[in-house]
Amino acid sequence: MAFPDPALPVSDDAPDLAWHADTAEAAAQRLGVDHATGLADDEAASRLTRHGPNSLTERPGKPAWRRFADQVMQPLVLVLVAAGAITGALGEVVDASVIFGVVITNAIIGYWQEAKAEGALAALARSVTTPVTVRRGGQRKQLEATQLVPGDIVMLAAGDRIPADLRLIQQHELHTDDSMLTGESQPVTKDIAALHPDTVLADRLNMAYAGTTVVAGQGSGLVIATGDATETGRIAGLIAAAPDLVTPLTRKMATFSNWLLWAIGGLALLTVGVGLARGGSAFDMFIAAVALAVGAIPEGLPAAVTVTLAIGVARMAKRRAIIRHLPAVETLGSTTVICSDKTGTLTENAMTVRVLWCAGEGYAVGGHGYAPEGAITHDEMPADIDGALREALIAGALCNDASLRHEHGQWKITGDPTEAALIVAARKGKLDEHTLGKLFPRRDVLPFDATRQFMATAHEGDGQGVVYVKGALERLLPLCVDRLSANGQPLPIDRAAIEKVACAYAEQGMRVLLLARRDFNFGQNFRLTVEGIEKLTLIGLVGMIDPPRKAAIGAIRNCHSAGIRVKMITGDHAVTALAIARQIGLNAEKALTGRELAQLDDTALGEAAHSVDVFARVEPEQKLRLVGALQARGEVVAMTGDGVNDAPALKQADIGIAMGLAGTEVAKEAAAMVLTDDNFASIEAAVEEGRGVWDNLVKFITWTLPTNFGEGLVIVAAILFGSTLPITPLQILWINMTTAVLLGLPLAFEPIERGVMRRAPRRLDQPVLDSGLIRRIVLVSFLLLAGAFGLFLLELDQGHSLAEARTVAVNVFVMVEAAYLFNCRSLTRSFWSQGLFSNPWIWAGLGSMLALQLAMTYLPVMNRLFQTAPIGLMEWAEIVAVALLCSTLIGLEKHLAARLARRTT
Ligand code: ATP
Q1: Considering the chain, what is the average pLDDT of its residues?
Q2: Which atom of ligand 1 has the smallest separation from the CA of 346?
């Protein structure tokens, strides 16, 4: 097609015209682009300034007032609201206003934390970028999807998310899933012919709309609308979906809160009943019931859980694992099996052709990486590039969708590394893929597909057509009927001998591809079909290395010591897979192939999935069965994937992990976690972080509950013994609110404990608190009761005022909590094992807490508000002594419990 006639009214701002009613050529002309070369770079840049980036304007999610109301509408908070209302009705205005103040402060903190966590998660989700391949200035280029402008020509492949609204200009078996726009779940077969202007959106087969996905085939399209101008952009609200903050743990917490509510209600009724029976006044009893309710409710818990999880998400992101679904943070710590792809995850996916085998001879290929420098030799002498060898290099270069370029002094590739390696090999044989492409123009293509395991292209040659095929040996060798001799003549084929050669290469860890060809007489409407790939002539074999990632070796070792099995699930050959498995330290005793798997029933598959660690020639669909078989044995499975066909397995796995660089958009959407560097070591890092996050959650819960229980116990004891309340409802609220934020939250920043990767994985059904921790919580609750009540009675006994005695009791609570915080920095080791200053937040929180306590004790306005009074140095000495004693006793308990645990294991 020629460049548009400058006289024609050309505009990329075309009004809402029926693009589907235009032919592809007319649409290109209207957008001022030649679809053989695409837009020039400067034109694209000026269009980008005019149209803005190809992204949707974010719509506000839940309105602020709804979010705020949600914080208040929780059962535990409603109890506080009711308590405040009744206290107000009884004329206790100050108390009522402080209770309401707490409700509002709590809601503000919860609202803010939640909004922050949601914002952080959403930002992380956005940070997973969407690369697109476009044709610009006559070259294929990879861009960020946000850089697209109207008039760009976008290449599409299976697994891509359509980045903008496109008028299709070329397609091969292109099928898209348009369900997000049309609700129709069946894939739609695309076509490029012009349609009637009245065709409704769902039937516009020559269009592909932003946000829909390519499920199969290949194609290219002309961008006709970007960003908010796309059909998706027009549908308001679609993109407002906020990340879900509900996780298994928060759900458990909600159940626990409801249970607590009933328990507190029952206890309050009981104590009030007992109190009344013992002659207490109804008013006092009511205040006591309010104190009990506000004391025993762990107001800060839900926010703390969300914050801890959000901090975990941020830490994982730093280690290159982006969490897309919050529950994954918890589940990661329980992972027992990681099923990983080989290529790109355990290996570097930096392919280099090492050998070519043609006409019975092996040729060595020199050089490193993608630099096309190195010689092709035979018996250490430069090889003559002719006959079958030349044909092998041509086949590899033409049956290819990758490209190679020299940029900033480095050789870079676009597309599949396996294919790029073949281009590099051809250049080492002085064959340039661009020249070859002009000599043998491509007529059609069957793109590589992991299920098909081969790729084929049809080319026009001198006088007649030729089809080049490359792919897995087992798949293509049976289709070969003869082989090419050294001078290019067909000879009979000895399949067993070829298999032997391939096996020898694979044993060295090489990926082996078979190259074949077939002459064709193309008719007018020639199309390549899978059925048409038969009666092939074998050209040769090519062996390429893909070195294991060094970091993967250490990461696998760590996983093993953490009780996590690592399984390699690859599309590659069993012998290659075993060789790589051996190099990276996996159990390489045996490999099971996809074909063998298909013959196993569910029980046998379960057994095999458990005992074997290398699975080769596995089709993506079989991954789903493998995940299911492992889960049926009680395993918690993390599974990696990148292709469109991996999506079901990624969804089924407990944690689906997609590759951020090589993964398709469909895989990323199905996954709970995305690796920004595609590296196995990042999975291990995320598991370690997951374990750390869980530890910190348990630490927070173990730290916070005794305060609530201790306060509850103090109130119940006061009523049972007929004593005045040692702490008032207001003082209780003060303790709960300030300590939760200043002392408790810093626990979320605790560094990961040493040795987390030497523990066995946590079972998913394991309760959050084990019996040892429950015992510790009860012990601390009673220590708080004894300390606060004891000093309160002592103060009164020494003739101090009620306000002074209460101030002492409040400070006992705060100081014991502060001391106990250090006990909680590690649940099993001594407090200094974590490094005294490894978490500066603890010290900042402690300092602020002390300042607040001094203010509460000595500032007249605080004295009035909270009914406190200044206390003397002696009192402080007693308080600190109680705190230190409690902390020492808890340390002792921890030490004994750890010794007991060591003895029993
Ligand atoms: P993984 O280990 O990540 O599962 P893989 O890259 O080893 O992946 P696939 O991509 O499924 O596995 O490839 C399976 C087989 O198909 C390879 O062993 C190779 O023989 C063949 N193959 C791979 N890439 C191509 C390609 N671009 N063209 C033709 N054949 C290919």
Answers
A1: 87
A2: 2
